[in-house]
Amino acid sequence: MSFDGIVEFTLDHEGGYVKNLLDPGGETNRGISKRAYPDEDIRNMTSARARELYKRDYWDKFDMDDDNLHMAAFDSAVNMGVGRIKSFLNGCQTWEDLITRREEYYHLLTIRKPKMKAFLRGWLNRTRELREFIGGKK
Q1: Cβ distance 29 to 18 under 8 Å?
Q2: Integer distance in angstroms from the first to the last C-alpha of the chain?
Q3: Closest CA to 37 of 22, 52, 16
Q4: DSSP string across the chain
Q5: CA-to-CA dists, residue 48 to 8, 51, 53, 107, 133, angstroms
Q6: pLDDT digits (tens, 9 = 90+) for 43-90
Q7: CA–CA distance from 58 to each of 21, 92, 134 (Å)?
Q8: Interior angle at CA 81, CA 75 and CA 84, nearest 5
Q9: Torsion 7-108-20-128 (CA) sign
Q10: Is 73 within 8 Å of 84 (Cβ atoms)?
């Protein structure tokens, strides 16, 4: 599968415009946050512009032979940052390992920052659906 396939999955999960005070990214639209992109018009972010940013700043940051691992790394990086996912990849052999590591991180995060627990169910639903998507069950 290519970028075009996984980006649709990611965009579906990122949703539209949100300004949640608990979200450290601040104002967000289609998963693009004001914190990460201070010069972007977040409120009016188009799907096409989000795709451009995702391709350049997330998908292209990973050079992998394993398409499944590449897709897992991309979606994970959109949610958690490229640097964090690159560090996770040092201990992950497969896409399943990466998603498991992501889930572990979410649990640890909610212990360190209890207010983030409001996002845990959504995060875990997304990783479950990512497993199904990459595993070919969808």
Answers
A1: yes
A2: 13
A3: 52
A4: --HHHHHHHHHHHH-S-B--TT-TT-SEETTEETTT-TTS-STT--HHHHHHHHHHHTGGG---S-HHHHHHHHHHHHHH-HHHHHHHHTT-SSHHHHHHHHHHHHHHHHHH-GGGHHHHHHHHHHHHHHHHHHHT--
A5: 11, 5, 9, 33, 22
A6: 999 999 999 999 999 999 998 889 999 999 999 999 999 999 999 999
A7: 25, 18, 18
A8: 105
A9: positive
A10: no
- 64: CB partners within 8 A, 6+ apart: 70, 73
Q: What is the pTM of this model?
A: 0.91
Query: For the chain, what are the domain ranges?
Result: 3-135
Partner residues linked to 18 by β-bridges: 28
* 64, two tokens: 């992998």
Write out the two tokens for 136: 């070919």
